[in-house]
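batch job 7 of whatever, protein = EF-hand domain-containing protein
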Amino acid sequence: MASEFQHTKLRAMFDAFDVDGDGYLEEADFTALAARWGGLARVRTEADLAARVRDVMLGWWQHLSTTVDTDGAGRISMAGILAMVDRLPSMHETVTATADTVFDAVDENGDGRISRGEHQRLIDVWHGRGIETGSTFDLLDQDGDGYLTRPEFAELWSQFWISDDPTYPGNYLCGPFTGAPTG
């Protein structure tokens, strides 16, 4: 069962995905999310990456709708998302594959690293608006080299979706959130 901490950190994601604000995620919300990601520079110019991004976003909708939409209404509540989070630890390869696609979409110059600016764009696209991140990137950049490599990003991505430990830096991969521990 998802913890209160997981609920708190995923609430911002749920609200960002819920484009029409009706309290449910529907296929149209994931289509809109894919369109937002389609606006990233590298995704706009690389057709194969654009297809991968769309497949990942809509693939998660398909997975959610078949796994947690138990009444077949075509919509997922926050409780459904939290039920899915309980299953993610057994889906590590799927989570990592999603991380690879997101990494490629955000790595604008294709240098195999995500810079502070590229990370900011990830957060803004994910939320559908500009988000003040403060020192969030510094929490993520554990080795202090100014970049996130693919392995670093994959670990942070897994921490975000799976971790219940508030001390893990990956909890902040998608930006700060209300109710996050301080200090």
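notes: The chain has a mean pLDDT of 89.
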